[in-house]
Amino acid sequence: MNGSVNIIETRGLVRRFGALTAVDRIDLDVPAGCIYGFLGPNGAGKTTTIRLLLGLIRPDAGEVRLFGKPLRGFRRESLARTGSLVEQPSLHPHLTGRENLEIVRILRRRPRKSVDKALAVVRLEKEADRLVGTYSLGMRQRLGLAVAGLGDPELLILDEPTNGLDPAGIREIRLLIRSLPGELGMTVFLSSHLLSEVEQVASHAGIVDRGRLVFQGKMADLAEMKGPGLEIRARPRDKARLLLAEAGYESVERDDGALLVADADEAAAAALARRLIEAGIDVSHLALRRATLEDVFLKMTGNGGERSSS
Ligand SMILES: Nc1ncnc2c1ncn2[C@@H]1O[C@H](COP(=O)(O)OP(=O)(O)OP(=O)(O)O)[C@@H](O)[C@H]1O
Ligand SMILES: [Mg+2]
User: Fold this and answer.
1) What is the per-residue pLDDT across 52-71, written as a single tens digit (0 to 9) for each?
2) What are the structural domains of the chain?
3) Which of 15, 48, 214 maximizes ligand 1 atoms within 8 Å of its Cβ, making it the mutation to test the pocket?
4) Is 252 or 12 the better-scoring residue by pLDDT?
5) Do residues 42 and 255 make contact, with C-beta atoms less than 8 angstroms apart?
6) For range 143-170, the mean pLDDT
7) Among residues 173, 199, 192, which one has the least CA distance to residue 46?
8) Are 98 and 129 spatial neighbours (Cβ–Cβ below 8 Å)?
9) How far is 197 from 171, CA to CA, in rounded Å?
10) Residue 286 pLDDT > 50, yes or no?
11) Distance, CA of 171 to CA of 200 (rounded, Å)
12) How far is the CA of 86 from the centre of ligand 2 (A)?
């Protein structure tokens, strides 16, 4: 396959729900053979975008191209080359895990052995002959991933694939996803609300905020942009924020009351701590930490990814 081809490409993609624009002129470029992390907080428009990519809903404007061809007109052909997992996997609870995979195998016209392979990849061999209705959430998620990856599709589109998995399960899936492009030449598009998670697997990233794509590029470029972050708990909070602002540091308030400052290094942390305490502010916690998606949002949009509850 031509290395310069975008396996997924959207131009001016728009989807509205009533007055809400859930997807607002999104232009995605997902190169062949990459792992693309599609990041954004709850309600940002990730699932809606993915449903548009899969032709599950229609855009109000714009275009989706998969494998270089418009989805309109080539949907069947493109989706035959694509495995997907969107929100809850659609599984038959009254059938076993193996039977669920068998149905998909027949539909996709894949060889018999692909079922055993898919079960092995997500480590469900032992539970394969149990009814899916008796599966735990994590087991269902694994089976959903097995369905998505059955028969090694060229493109995998996964909406929050580690949903419902425990830390060991998350790690396994991460290792698995990471191995796919090299081993099978797959392109993987996966959504997440955790930067830390995407960072560990993705080569490329897109960040969506309230329907808009606010960043797209290589993971390395994103890493460069974020810098270390500072987390502060102080009272009174408003006074602390004001003081930080006076010192030239923009902060956002997280839901749990902590203040986040992007782009503060060790020296800045020490200086700010002194300043706050000297101003008579009670500081109960002040720590440098790896930047999170919230910090990146703070830098890119100046709002920390906060949204009004709707
Ligand atoms: N069928 C629908 N009808 C009305 N509003 C919808 C519908 N689907 C999504 N929305 C709205 O569109 C916005 C984007 O939703 P979407 O599910 O795409 O977000 P998300 O990024 O996947 O969030 P999460 O991380 O919570 O899964 C939200 O405000 C949501 O309420
Ligand atoms: Mg979603």
Assistant:
1) 999 999 999 999 999 999 99
2) 6-224 (3.40.50.300), 228-290 (3.30.70)
3) 48
4) 12
5) no
6) 91
7) 192
8) yes
9) 10
10) yes
11) 10
12) 8
